[in-house]
């Protein structure tokens, strides 16, 4: 997969005066005058006088581990995770402190309302059940509420101190709209991104951390969960998702080249870009201005035959053959119920199921069917055998693409995100941080 390897380019020599290293006039051969114990990792910090405890770090790390279904991680990975969590908590603390300094403090009622909504919508639990669940995984309601407070505070700061100063002209939007019209029929991507900022001094450490994140994602980690915890882009709060974009909107040749070679479900990175590293995840793709067959809504009958307990493999094969023969003899959906009853099969109807909601293998099979036809039989010895019969199909309408206002919003969001990153860097630069 293109882009899956570390594509970071070597740093420019100092004498060329390239980038920040040239500004600092750092020599090629650096002689260290002191020592640093790589095993001495400071686990807590005091940010402008406010303490971040080891318990704070442990409970937030537990949230991340739980979001990834409790996947086993090594002692080294846990140490790296704790370091990243500490960085996140420092940023979060700075954001909350800044909101208070700007008299934009988030109230406890606002935090509680968001917490209660997340309990139902994201965790499918009542607030009380979520409280208990968080404690069982080694976290706490206070840790999640702290994260919520940080996200709300930062959103409020960006809305007042960044968004009003971002301008996009009508000419820019018109130019983008014209390019979209010219691009009709080309591919559009739904992409997720994790962005990690880096300086010449931190470049290698950040690259290593990004590679560890990629490894954990490849082992089954949740991309939205990692994006929420680690990404420094403004899209972190929505799981890193950039929405539907053309590759040109990534505004970086390295990212464009990597994404162009990817298929939905694939991951690429870390990819070095100005200011840091990006990890890309292609969620989906479609043709600009063209109807996507996978957006069709189907009317289906599922015809299934269960195997009695103790059915042997030979018996299952025989029953599957008999079932397939009977289904093939059915004369469309009008005959399906009676035909299924004759062989002891069950029928379940669903008149509004999007193609996208089905597994990939079934999507491709169903898109090739005419009304009254069935998929090949599928199932297992324990589940029995089943087919899906197509009884109707509402094809998607051709999309006209984003309108002027939507394009204006996309351009504004991109610029707001970049200015928000600079805002956070300024807060870090001016902070008094003591490590314990």
TrEMBL record:
Q: Which GO terms describe its molecular function?
A: peptidyl-prolyl cis-trans isomerase activity
What Gene3D superfamilies does its record include?
A: 3.10.50.40, Porin chaperone SurA, peptide-binding domain
Keyword annotations: Isomerase, Rotamase, Signal
| One Pfam family linked to the record | SurA_N_3
Question: Which residue range or ranges hold the PpiC domain?
Answer: 186-284
Q: Which SUPFAM superfamilies match?
A: FKBP-like (SSF54534), Triger factor/SurA peptide-binding domain-like (SSF109998)
Q: Which domain of life is it from?
A: Bacteria
Write down what this protein is called: Parvulin-like PPIase
The protein's organism comes out as: Croceibacterium soli
